[in-house]
Design a protein that fits this description.
The structure holds 2 protein chains of 2 kinds. Chain A is built from 11 helices and no strands. By secondary structure, chain A is mainly α. Chain A has 2 domains: 86 residues, Rna Polymerase Sigma Factor, Chain: A; 100 residues, no CATH class. The radius of gyration of chain A is 19 Å and the shape is globular. Chain A starts with a helix and ends with a helix. By secondary structure, chain B is of the alpha+beta class. Chain B folds into 2 domains: 45 residues; 111 residues, Immunoglobulin-like. Helices cover 35% and strands 32% of the residues of chain B. Chain B is built from 5 helices and 10 strands. Classes of the chains: A mainly alpha, B alpha+beta.
C-alpha cells in the first residue's frame, strides 16, 4: 500500500467511512500489538493498549497531517501507553529494569524443558526470554508490515545507524540460545564461554 | 580470576571472534534464517487476537465528531522522569492535565483509583466519564470540582459540558489510567 492510499484511507475514514477505517485497522493492528507484546505485556494488557491506541486515532483522524507517518504515530502512541501501563504495574518487566544477565539466566533455565517441544517452540521460547530491549525491537521488526529502520529509530529514539547492528546482535544471541536445544549440556558450556568472552 | 579461567575466557573470545571473521557470510545467513523462522512463527505464536481486532474496528463508532478535543498535555507518570520513579519504586498520586482551547481539565488519581478533578477556569459543569462499560455523568460544584470514587479499568475519556455555555462539549483524549 503506498502513501497516497494511506492518505485517502485517512480522509475517507475521517469522513465517516467505516470500510476505510477497517482497512487501516487491518494494516496496522499487528504493529500496535507487536509494540505491546514486545514490551512483555500479557495479552489482556496488550489488548488495552491496542484499544486505547485505536480510540486515540479515531478521535484524531482529522488531525493526522502526514499520512505516510501513520505507522510512526500509532507506534509512538502505543509505546507511550505501554510505558504508562508498565509504570502502573511496578515490578513487572520494564525494558530498563531487567538486566541482560537475569534474562540470560532465565533463558538457560527455560532450555531445560525445551526438548519436550518442537524446534519452533524452542526458538520462540528463546525469543520470549531475550533481554527486553532485544525483544521489543525484534518483535516490531517481525510485525507485518514492519516499520522501516528510519521509523523505528524515531519511535524508539535510537540512532538509525544502531538499529542494524542491534538487530544483528539480538539475532545472534537468539541463534546461540536456540542452538542450546539439540546440544543441551555441551551447548550450555559453549554458550556460557561465549557470553563470558563477549562481556570481558 | 585464576590463570586457567583467564585462558578459557581469552580462548573463547578469540574463538568467538574467529567465527565471525572467517565466515561473516555464514553468520549473516544464519542470522537471517533465524529471523525468517521467527517471522513464520508470529502468526502461530502471537497473532492479534480476534477480539482485539474487533475492538479496534468498533472504536470507530465511539468517535464524537462534534466534540472539541482536549489533549493530554501533562502526565506526571511520564513527564516527571518515568525511569527515576521506576527505579526508586516511589508511588504517589498521578496528576494529569488536558487542554482544550478555552478550558483545562486538571485531575489527580490516587493509587486506589480515587480521582478528583477540576474544570479550569472554575465553573459549574457536567463531566461524563466514558469507559468500557458505558458512561457515568458527574456534576461538578460551582468551582468546577468533581470526584470519581473508583475509576474503571481500561481506556477512559472525560467529556465536559459547561453549564454557562451551549457550545460543543469538550472531550479528553482516551487514556488508560
Amino acid at each position: 500500500m503506498n502513501d497516497l492510499d494511506l492518505g485517502s484511507l485517512l480522509r475517507q475514514a475521517a469522513g465517516g467511512d467505516w470500510r476505510s477505517w477497517d482497512a487501516l485497522v487491518d494494516r496496522f493492528a499487528g504493529l500496535v500489538w507487536a509494540i505491546a507484546r514486545g514490551h512483555g505485556l500479557k495479552q489482556a494488557d496488550a489488548a488495552e493498549i491496542s484499544r486505547t491506541t485505536w480510540m486515540r486515532l479515531a478521535e484524531n483522524l482529522d488531525f493526522i497531517s502526514a499520512p505516510e507517518r501513520l505507522g510512526v504515530w500509532l507506534a509512538t502512541n502505543a509505546l507511550r501507553e505501554c510505558l504508562r501501563l508498565m509504570r502502573q504495574r511496578e515490578g513487572c518487566t520494564s525494558a530498563e529494569q531487567l538486566t541482560e544477565s537475569t534474562c540470560g539466566d532465565r533463558a538457560l533455565e527455560m532450555t531445560d524443558d525445551l526438548a519436550k517441544r518442537g524446534r519452533g517452540a524452542a526458538l520462540w521460547s528463546a525469543f520470549e526470554a531475550l533481554a527486553p530491549d532485544c525483544k521489543a525491537l525484534l518483535r516490531v521488526l517481525l510485525a507485518d508490515p514492519p516499520l522501516s529502520h528510519a521509523e523505528l529509530s524515531e519511535v524508539f529514539e535510537m540512532p538509525i545507524g544502531s538499529i542494524g547492528p542491534v538487530r544483528a546482535r539480538c539475532l545472534d544471541r537468539l541463534g546461540d540460545r536456540a542452538a542450546l536445544h539439540p546440544l543441551h549440556s555441551q551447548g550450555r558450556h559453549a554458550v556460557a564461554g561465549t557470553t563470558k568472552g563477549r562481556v570481558s | 580470576m585464576n590463570p586457567d579461567d583467564e585462558a578459557v575466557a581469552k580462548a573463547s573470545r578469540i574463538d568467538g571472534a574467529a567465527v565471525h571473521l572467517e565466515w561473516p557470510d555464514a553468520a549473516e545467513a544464519a542470522r537471517e534464517a533465524t529471523f525468517r523462522r521467527l517471522q513464520s512463527l508470529v502468526p502461530e505464536k502471537d497473532p492479534v487476537p480476534a477480539e482485539v481486532l474487533a475492538s479496534a474496528r468498533s472504536s470507530f463508532g465511539l468517535r464524537s465528531v462534534d466534540d472539541e478535543l482536549a489533549a493530554l498535555v501533562y502526565d506526571s507518570m511520564i513527564d516527571d522522569g518515568l525511569l527515576a520513579s521506576v527505579r526508586s519504586g516511589g508511588r504517589t498520586a498521578r496528576q494529569l492535565s488536558f487542554e482544550a482551547r478555552d478550558l483545562v481539565l486538571e485531575m489527580e488519581m490516587s493509587g486506589a483509583r480515587y480521582l478528583v478533578g477540576q474544570v479550569v477556569p472554575a465553573q459549574a459543569a457536567v463531566v461524563e466519564l466514558r469507559h468500557r462499560g458505558g458512561t457515568t455523568p458527574v456534576e461538578t460544584d460551582e468551582l468546577g470540582c468533581f470526584h470519581i470514587p473508583v475509576v474503571p479499568d481500561g481506556p477512559v475519556s472525560f467529556r465536559c459540558w459547561l453549564a454557562s455555555s451551549a457550545a460543543h462539549p469538550v472531550a479528553t483524549s482516551w487514556i488508560t489510567l
